[in-house]
Amino acid sequence: MKQDRISxxxxxxxxxxxxxxxxxxxxxxxxxxxxLIKSMPNQVRKVLLDTSFTDQEHLKSLCREYxxxxxxxxxxxxxxxxxxxxxxxxxxxxxxxxxxADKPHIVLVNPSNMGNLGTILRTAVGFGIYDIAIIxxxxxxxxxxxxxxSMGALFKLNIHLYESYEEYRSEFPKHEVFTFxxxxxxxxxxxxCPKAELFALVFGNEATGLNDSFLxxxxxxxxxxxxxxxxxxxxxxxxxxxxxxxxx
Amino acid sequence: MKQDRISxxxxxxxxxxxxxxxxxxxxxxxxxxxxLIKSMPNQVRKVLLDTSFTDQEHLKSLCREYxxxxxxxxxxxxxxxxxxxxxxxxxxxxxxxxxxADKPHIVLVNPSNMGNLGTILRTAVGFGIYDIAIIxxxxxxxxxxxxxxSMGALFKLNIHLYESYEEYRSEFPKHEVFTFxxxxxxxxxxxxCPKAELFALVFGNEATGLNDSFLxxxxxxxxxxxxxxxxxxxxxxxxxxxxxxxxx
Lengths: 248, 248
What we know:
- The structure is a homodimer.
- The first copy, chain A, is an alpha/beta fold.
- Chain A contains seven helices and eleven strands.
- In chain A, helix 4 packs parallel to helix 5 and helix 4 packs parallel to helix 7.
- Helix content of chain A is 27%, strand content 21%.
- Chain A folds into two domains: 9-93, CATH 3.30.1330.30; 105-246, 3-Layer(aba) Sandwich (Alpha/beta knot).
- Chains A and B meet through helix 4 and helix 7 of A and helix 4 and helix 7 of B.
């Protein structure tokens, strides 16, 4: 008979509010916790449930299936979440990934907003791009706010952090590079999206975009937009780029 | 000689933290305040400046140009903004708009998140759609959070609120309707975006999407996406739809 690994609770003092340099983080809410368990079961330390959570049996049976310990701990969930209406949390070990050399990439240069980063990760998965490079400094991929923004899509991705664009590029020299810039040379239209076997779509930071050195890093792309806006939101630009290149 | 309308400050007791049923609202931050002044000068009651704002002369000369009173009031800005790093606010009268009968529309059915709504408004302007219907209940277009999310694009739009989709539709029966749904009939591809002279793109709420009655409201559209995500973020779906229909 399989035994539940129900945590005794004697470790709970160790779980603290999120810190960037800790070796663990956590999902908040049922949906991202399910995604964590199903995509990265070996990384999960334990699952916390609130006694008023309505879908307990489903979650507990999933924990049993993957031999993940669970624990009722309303107090710790409240402490971690800062929010009402959070009934589940999943504590997991941080991990690192390797990007696939033969798959399309999205490269985010210094993304600064965790909510935007989360939305971008969800969108990448939505359009079938599973390999993401983040050029540092950048928003923390394991911060619970990023995870929440991604709706747990983070756990389906190979994300790797690089100190510089050059470091990324030297590892993947074969990808055809497309840099998204307001002064991009090529206007992205539906009829005329570039065709490439293997590509990297490169996007800058929310406030500053990519600097002009990226004009010659590959083919620079302009998403046509009205002069009535300063620019498109970064998440929208990534969405359009990923949609266009993956559906051409 | 033109005289500055410098407010005496005796009205400042009347400006309070935002309320949905108040007849005024306010922009927070320089960028949306500039957009407000340039797009809707007649609606502006006054502009508030913090004494440490770095671009004072530019803002004051813009206020003079449009004969808008301005006032230094660090305390009131702090009270309204809840945030550090806010140095400008623009108090304005709420207003109502009429949608153009001969322009493309975006119809948002029960949008619930103010940040998302703001991003959608900015994206609509970005792709050249200036007429927006909101089917109630929906997030408050004049809430400062929506305005901030829109980066002031709100002030460039004709937004009208409707009690029901039927009310909207009876006013604009000639628009060809496209409803964006996960079970949409027609898959939106780059090569095959529907062509319509005059169209309305209809999107549902963040959590629930459009209900099945919208399958027969026009042509239902599915944006191709991986089964690895529950759905695309609403803002991304609107971005893809607006981009595809405006650039076909």
